[in-house]
Amino acid sequence: MNPPPDTSSVADAQRADQSPDVTELAGQMEQFRDCFARVREEVGRSIVGHRPLITDTLVAIFSQGHVLFESVPGLGKTYLVRVLSRVLGLSGGRIQCTPDLMPADILGTHILGEDDAGHRSFRFEQGPVFHNVVLVDEVNRATPKTQAALLEAMQERAVTAGGRRFALPEPFFVLATQNPLEMEGTYPLPEAQLDRFFFKLKVPFPSADELVEISRQTTTFTQREPEAVLDGPELIAMQRMLTHVPLADPLAHYAAAVILATHPGNRLGPDPVNRYVLYGASPRGLQAMIRAARVHCVLDGRTTVSLDDLKAAARPALRHRLVLNFEGQAERIDVDDVVGRVLDHVPAPAGEA
Amino acid sequence: MAQSTLRFQAVARRVKRRLTVVRYARRLAASGPWVFGSAAAVLVLVRLLAGPGGGELSGTLGVGLAAAVIAGWLGATAVALCRRPISERQAVAAWGRRIGDHEALLSAWAYEQLDRLTPGQRLHLQRAEALLDEHLPRLASAVPVRVGYNAIVPPLVVTALAWSALFIPPPPPAEPPLDRFALERVAQVSHHLDDHQQMLDRLAGLDPEDREQLEELDEQIKRTAEHMRSLKDASASDVLRELEALARAAEALREAMGDGDGDGEPLSQAMIEELEKHADTADFGAALRSENHERAAEESERIGEDLDPANRTREQARRIARAVDRAMEVASEQDRASMVGRQLDAADADFKADAPDAAGERFAELADQLRRRGEREQARRRLDELAAELRESGQHVVNRQAGATRQLAQTRPGNTRSLGGEPMPMPGQRQGDDAAGGESADPQETPRRRMPLPTPGDRGGDEDRPPVPGTASARRATGPPPEPGAAGRFAERSDRPAAEGPPVPGAGGRPQGAGEGEGAGEGEGMAAGAGEGEGAGIAAAQAGGGVGGHEAGSGSAALGEGDPAERIDAAGASAVAVSPSGQGPAATREIQGREQRGAAGGDPRQLALEQLRAQEEALADEPLPLSRRQQVRRYFTLLRSELESTP
């Protein structure tokens, strides 16, 4: 288990959060673009393909969000998380969920210990969640009780045990995976807990060329170890910088209209929503859209969020927040298609002009 | 920030206006083909419904309906646009979308309206300013007002259809040239233009400026006369145009003459009445009342002569001085400012200064002034008549058989003398009806003047021309016989000289004996002509002496002198008077039948009813439109019912 991160660096980052002036902000944006590119480049050296996946994962991380990966086993999810933690200079932990996994197994527990003087006392033994980047593998195999404990830690960024509250290290990300195929003996995450995830990313199967490249890189005796590009305080500073990226009211109204349009019965919603959706996106979905859009905005070299940024963030941010009804599930409706129809249907700020 | 606010909002408004125009044009282009198709259909439908020969009407109606359709369409589109206007936000967003700014301008427009800005918003505003500077000059190309194919072709098609031969009526056929007879009449008119020219030369009382204009008119008449003599292929319109130009020139000269000395306002009633009260100034006052300047001049001259030391008696001078003094006492400021008032005021002062000689000279001077005014008035009247006669001559050339209505319309106010007025013999004036031409065969025709158009057998009518023997008597033979005992019903007032007064068919005769058709100035007095043995037609005419000096108690008229009194027709008088209305062509007849005799001893109500009946009979002879006739009959019916119901 990696040691907890140095909190002094976090304090430095917080001090750096004082409202920057315009020139400073412009410089931070430029620096962010550079860092993001370097991180993506470094991750891409270890992960074959999956460039959009890497980008979306980084967007979620810079937006202080947790990511739920959905894919069949063996596509490199775990490796991706490990590489990310190395490149970002963060400590990483892994939790392999099983039905018998208990909350104490991931959060930690009080154990009776004895010091050198022979005095016995309970001390809190931190679980694997006490890392900057935590990989929760096959989260849907854990029992709801364990899922709830994990998801509470994700939301609160703290663990309460034995009447004491233990703050999780910053930055803190949970990258969970789930297998969409082997559903037997699993405990699908409830909607309220799915909502805690910033993004839900689908890990695509590699193409033939990518498979060939994977075979080349992974069948050697020694593998290249990724290098750290950032560290925790830098990441936090960038996260805070992104909160200064403005969003104009007309676009905020557009994003809100998109969220409303995902709810059946709303006049803004298209027909597929009314037909196949049981419940629409929550306000957390709106937050996720806007925060992710800010990252896209800065990456694109702009100074304010645009409509395209919001649309780019909409699918990963909303796809796990829309609950299909029975008809939608029966007809195997792709939620991404529904979100796409919503984006097309909601009028842009320009309207008919 | 205020600068940015002003800038982005101003740009937003500008883009909004442009987008509104673009949107309007786009909607017009979208719906234009349908609307213009409908307009074209309306055009064709109206034309088809109008049938052959309805080109002009259908063209006007169709174009009007089509224009209404198009106007309604334009208005409805504008209203629809106004009901859903483009907001500034939409305008900026749409512009940004067209230039691909990723909502940078829209965001900047939104940020600049905030009171406090974050660093990120300030940073964006800085960037957006640069973006605005880059793209604002290219606004027109980014938001073009395109006029598409649909917006151009349909209007062209409809316009071409509207102006096509289908709706444009064929041009009227060329006016045919005057025929031989019309050319003869034109030649006659041209000869009479020479007469007019001579008449104009005799006009007196003109200022040098007026004389100069008169010479120009003279020259114009001369040119026109020569031109009309040389006409060969001219049309009736050409002739009318020539004569109308002359008529307008005459009217212009008349207007230019004005009233000469500018103070032609009549004296007040009180002053005139005061003058009429005194024997020595009564005739003078009467002449002033009747605005007979010539007569007033004579009276003024007479008063001046009475004040001449050679003729003057002390008593007479005292009476005149008293009359003038009393008159000036009641004179108003306007009276004193007038020409007559000034002279009388001066004479009054002379009398008071015991200088009757000077007062006499004032009256002599006043006589000259009045005479000059009379001449000018006469000149204006003659010009007025000249214009009327020129127009009538043109009509005569075009359509010789003029209807009664048209003839009535040619009656001019100057054709009838006012009481005591001087006769105005006109060159070329007829003395009677044109029996050969048959124009005035209608007994209802109002006596009037017109330019004589001598035809074979016709009499010239000009007093300077020798009459054709026998023509006048022949005319009277053709007129309808007078009613027994009612002869002279249509006689004109006898204050007109016989030379100019047109005889009335069946009137029974004229004062100087019809048949000779000559002799001016003989006609004051009783008209006792006899018409071909149909009864004793006696036209009772009013004496031309006017009203001066006839007031009871004034005693101004010397025995055996002055104007003759009106004669009484013992057999029952009938009189017809044509008086000017001053409101355009009109005719009024005054009918006094024998029933009026003994009115003093009869029942007034019965007398009024009989008068109504007489007037209704006169109405029957009037060439009135049917609607007007019925209206007047209702008026009479109402009067009669009121009279009959009166106890």
Chain-wise SSE layout:
The complex is a heterodimer of chains A (353) and B (647).
Chain A (H helix, E strand, L loop, with lengths): L6 H9 L6 H25 L4 H12 L4 E4 L6 H11 L4 E5 L6 H5 E7 L5 E7 L6 E5 L6 H13 L1 E4 L2 E4 L5 E6 L12 H4 L4 E4 L5 H11 L13 H11 L6 H13 L9 H6 E3 L3 H17 L7 H12 L4 E2 L1 H5 L4 H11 L8
Parallel strand pairs in A: 1-8, 1-9, 2-5, 5-8
Antiparallel strand pairs in A: 3-4, 6-7, 10-11
Chain B lengths: L1 H49 L4 H29 L4 H12 L4 H8 L7 H17 L3 H4 L6 H14 L17 H22 L6 H22 L6 H22 L11 H9 L4 H8 L3 H14 L7 H16 L3 H5 L1 H14 L3 H43 L5 H6 L61 H8 L125 H18 L4 H20 L2
Helix pairs in contact in B: 1-2, 1-3, 1-7, 3-4, 4-5, 8-9, 8-17, 9-10, 10-17, 11-12, 11-14, 12-13, 13-17, 14-16, 16-17, 20-21
Shape of chain A: globular
How much helix is in the residues of chain B? Answer: 55-70%
Ends apart, CA distance between termini of chain A: 59 Å
Low-confidence stretches of chain B: 401-551, 553-558, 567-582, 593-599
Report the span from N to C terminus of chain B. 96 Å
Number of helices, counting only DSSP H or I runs of 4 residues or more of chain B: 21
Radius of gyration of chain B, CA atoms, in whole angstroms: 40 Å
Assembly category: heterodimer
Portion in helices of chain A: 40-55%
SS elements, strand count of chain A: 11
Give the largest chain-chain interface (CB within 8 Å).
A-B, 30 and 28 residues
Strand content of chain B: under 5%
What would you call the structural class of chain A?
alpha/beta
Rg of chain A (CA only): 21 Å
Report the structural category of chain B: mainly alpha
Give the number of DSSP strands of chain B. 0
User: What is the arithmetic mean of pLDDT of chain A?
Assistant: 86
On the 0 to 100 scale, the average pLDDT of chain B is: 68
Helix/strand order of chain A, N-terminal first: HHHEHEHEEEHEEEHEHHHHEHHEHH
Approximate strand percentage of chain A: 5-15%
Number of helices of chain A: 15
